[in-house]
Automatic annotation (TrEMBL):
InterPro entries, sorted: IQ_motif_EF-hand-BS
Compositionally skewed regions (Basic and acidic residues) per UniProt: 43-55
GO MF entries: calmodulin binding
Region entry Disordered, spans: 40-69
Gene3D superfamilies hit by this protein: 1.20.5.190
Name recorded for this polypeptide: Neurogranin
SMART domains: IQ
Length: 69
């Protein structure tokens, strides 16, 4: 029975790809997912940046880079 399509599978496959409502729904889903991934990426970058800032603040180098020391 692996090869047989269930009623749910048939309903999913019957969505016309040129339907404007289906395309609008797909665009909203994709935009939501892209926004989620972007926010996740930005949040991860902030954590990395905070860790690097803390490492720089705790470094043992005594010179001030602005003055060329």
């Amino acid at each position: 029975m692996e090869g047989a399509c269930t009623k749910l599978d048939e309903d999913i496959l019957d969505i016309p790809l040129d339907d404007p409502d289906a395309n609008a729904a797909a665009a909203k889903i994709q935009a939501s997912f892209r926004g989620h991934m972007t926010r996740k990426k930005i949040k991860g970058g902030e954590i990395d940046r905070k860790t690097k800032d803390a490492e720089c603040a705790n470094s043992t180098r005594g010179g001030d880079l602005r003055n060329g020391d």
